[in-house]
Design goal:
The protein is mainly alpha-helical and 321 residues long. It has one domain. The chain has 17 helices and no strands. The radius of gyration is 20 Å and the shape is globular. The two termini are 23 Å apart.
Length: 321
């Protein structure tokens, strides 16, 4: 249990690095940063695949198809939905919708995977979810304030943005559940091998995505300097760092956590990503969080502390309770 929690914490610390890139590359389109990250992930996976080639050879065609699905939906489609939602509706609404992921995953997994993992008793789970939800609301106070303002004149555009944000939530609710299914069914497999397999599966998709972004830039007569933009070394270096640490190492640690923890608990631990992102952002700004943000962080920590105390029960006992 505690080893799994430490792996989830490390995954959150790695994934939080993703939020640094837009701050350091504000001139770069979100779509380019997304495909750049996953292109780097795929390229980094190539030498790692050579090192792990014996284990990768044992993966069946079905396993590779599963890795491709996870890469397509959990990586690229998720970011396409999120970036498109922000472009259509602005940042506030999509940010708040995405912030519900820890709660949505926990509830879905507790219903779906109770027979496999045991059920986390609802009476103990709900306080944790409430604390995490309140913490997310506090740390996203700016988004809440913006949502209280008048909606844009184009209501259909705003609604499409909200639907795409819900699509992003659906993608990343599906991903950890399906990923945990494979890892539980192949408990003898190394989390490292499965992370590398997903990187290899991501590479052709990311190459196609990069080519599409480049083509779109050319057709729209964008002044943006492709292929690497106005700060090529900074862009390539950041994408390589994020591809290695956030994509490969983060996926490896999440795989290890998924093999050890009930999925309903692991889903709540995604808040480590939020906490890490906040910490990195305030470190870059050079000042401490405000009182409301600090209260939100305290609520998130309290929610996680409550969650890790819950032990799953066999479904017959949970129903009897």
């Amino acid at each position: 249990m505690w080893t799994g929690i430490l792996y989830a914490l490390t995954a959150g610390l790695m994934w939080g690095l993703v939020f640094i890139s837009p701050l350091l590359l504000p001139e770069y389109p979100a779509a380019l940063q997304s495909v750049g990250r996953y292109l780097a992930f795929g390229l980094i996976a190539l030498p790692l695949a050579w090192i792990d080639r014996r284990a990768l050879r044992t993966l069946s065609r079905t396993d590779w198809m599963e890795a491709l699905k996870l890469a397509a939906i959990g990586n690229l489609l998720y970011y396409v939905c999120l970036a498109s939602a922000i472009q259509l509706a602005g940042a506030p609404l999509p940010t708040m919708i995405i912030g519900t992921l820890p709660v949505v995953i926990a509830i879905t997994a507790n219903v779906r995977d109770a027979r496999r993992d045991g059920r986390l008793p609802w009476g103990q789970l709900v306080p944790s979810l409430v604390l995490i939800g309140a913490g997310i609301a506090c740390v996203n106070r700016a988004e809440l304030a913006a949502l209280n303002q008048h909606a844009p004149g184009d209501l259909w555009r705003y609604a499409r943005g909200a639907l795409l944000a819900c699509g992003a939530v659906a993608c990343w609710t599906w991903y950890p559940l399906r990923n945990a299914d494979w890892l539980r069914q192949h408990a003898e497999r190394s989390p490292r091998t499965w992370a590398t397999a997903q990187g290899i599966a991501t590479l052709p998709l990311a190459l196609a995505g990069y080519a599409m972004v480049w083509l779109f830039m050319g057709l729209s007569d964008s002044p943006f300097a492709m292929p690497f933009g106005p700060h090529p070394w900074r862009f390539v270096g950041l994408m390589a760092a994020i591809g290695l640490f956030a994509s490969w190492l983060g996926t490896l640690c999440w795989n290890a956590a998924s093999q050890r923890l009930p999925t309903a608990l692991a889903g709540q631990l995604i808040v480590f990503e939020t906490l890490a992102a906040l910490g990195y952002a305030f470190a870059l700004r050079g000042h401490a969080p405000g009182s409301l943000t600090f209260a939100g962080i305290a609520l998130l920590v309290a929610g996680v502390s409550w969650a890790v105390r819950i032990r799953p029960r066999p479904i017959e006992l949970a129903v009897a309770d």
